[in-house]
Design brief:
This protein has 2 domains: 8-128 and 241-250, Response regulator (Rossmann fold); 137-220, Beta Barrel (Thrombin, subunit H). 31% of the residues lie in helices and 31% in strands. It contains 6 helices and 14 strands. The longest helix has 22 residues, at 222-243. It starts with 7 loop residues before the first strand and ends with a strand.
Length: 251
């Protein structure tokens, strides 16, 4: 399993439309994606890339997804890799068979985005005690940040309903109180208060995380949380919903 900050997901599905759109979605959620179009390719990649999670369709053309699941769980080098089965088949017997073989979860198509987030959280973050509670979107969006009477026009790097990471060459000190104005759709915007809770300076690892500051929202209302959650989900999946040839994602 990978020890790097960005987690790797090997996803195998013989439906190229689903594979493409799920890959886009997972990338926007902050993961590195390794796609495979059939079972044999998935097995080859499994040995090379050492993924943090494997996502398998039940039917993979050249090889049944349950056979790959069985192989992963019986192999001493891969048995601890979480496997998520993804299928349009909601047959209880199939689901139970996969659970007995050791799958971490079973998702039915079209995949619901909050269920996907919850499942990945359980597979990757919860076992390590580093649980990410909120769905997070990688997003390049200009926002206004006000601090001590000065307003900055800055770009976001990621966003959730409880906070955001904002790029800034000289980040504000930890503990700084800010007010962020985030533009929404159709000319609307939302203003939220927050505190700078961590910073990354220019001469850190700029290739992993650009210089900037993590902001945790405070004094936020339930309505604002709902708006930000819906907005985050839309940022991740809206164009996928609009353009896909078949149902893949539900919000």
């Amino acid at each position: 399993m990978s020890d790097s900050g960005i987690k790797k997901i090997l996803i195998a599905d013989d439906n190229q439309t689903f594979l493409m759109y799920m890959g886009i979605l997972l990338k926007r959620m902050g993961f590195t994606i390794i796609p495979a179009e059939d079972g044999l390719e998935a097995l080859k990649l499994l040995k090379i890339v050492e993924p943090d999670v494997v996502m398998l369709d039940i039917r993979l053309g050249t090889m049944d997804g349950t056979a790959i699941l069985k192989y992963i769980k019986e192999n001493k080098q891969t048995f601890n890799v979480p496997v998520i089965m993804v299928s349009s088949d909601s047959n209880k017997e199939i689901i139970e068979k996969c659970r007995k073989l050791g799958c971490a979860s079973y998702l039915t198509k079209p995949v619901k985005i909050d269920k996907l987030h919850e499942t990945l959280e359980g597979c990757i973050f919860s076992p390590k005690g580093s649980k990410r509670k909120n769905l997070r979107a990688s997003v390049n969006k200009k926002v206004t940040v006000a601090h001590n009477g000065i307003k900055y026009k800055l770009y976001t790097e990621s966003l959730s309903e409880k906070g955001m990471y904002i790029r800034k060459k000289d980040p504000l000190p930890i503990g700084s109180e800010v007010e962020v104005t985030l533009p929404l759709k159709d000319g609307d915007s939302i203003q939220v208060k927050g505190d700078v809770v961590y910073i990354k300076e220019l001469f850190g690892d700029v290739f992993k995380v650009p210089p900037g500051m993590g902001i945790k929202f405070k004094e936020i209302t339930d309505d604002q949380v709902k708006i930000l959650k819906n907005y985050t989900e839309r940022l991740i999946a809206e164009d996928i919903l609009d353009s896909q040839e078949e149902d893949v994602i539900k919000i």
